[in-house]
Write a structure and sequence with these properties.
85 residues, DNA-binding, LIM/homeobox protein LMX-1.2, alpha+beta, elongated, Znf_LIM
């Protein structure tokens, strides 16, 4: 199944989000699907409802970094070449 990779900017710009920066209304922290650590980077990758560090989103077979699209099968992400194997 082809999945688009979405790069999400975690730096909020609206008034409500700015309140969360100063300690009011803290949103839940995202946890990386790859390494299970909290994502505190400005950007995170969103794939199939899961959050990833940019460097953790890699093909399960060849470890190529996935930045634009990826393929999802059996709860793993793949590059196009390895998905087609």
């Amino acid at each position: 199944m082809l999945i688009d990779v979405k790069k999400q900017d975690r730096l909020p710009t609206d008034a409500r989000s700015l309140r969360s920066l100063i300690g009011c209304d803290s949103p839940p922290q995202a946890v990386c699907e790859g390494c299970t650590r909290i994502i505190s980077d400005r950007f995170l990758m969103r794939v199939n409802g899961a959050s990833w560090h940019e460097e953790c989103l890699q093909c399960a077979a060849c470890q190529q970094t996935l930045t634009v699209t990826c393929y999802f099968r059996d709860s793993k992400v793949y590059c196009k070449r390895d998905y087609q194997r």
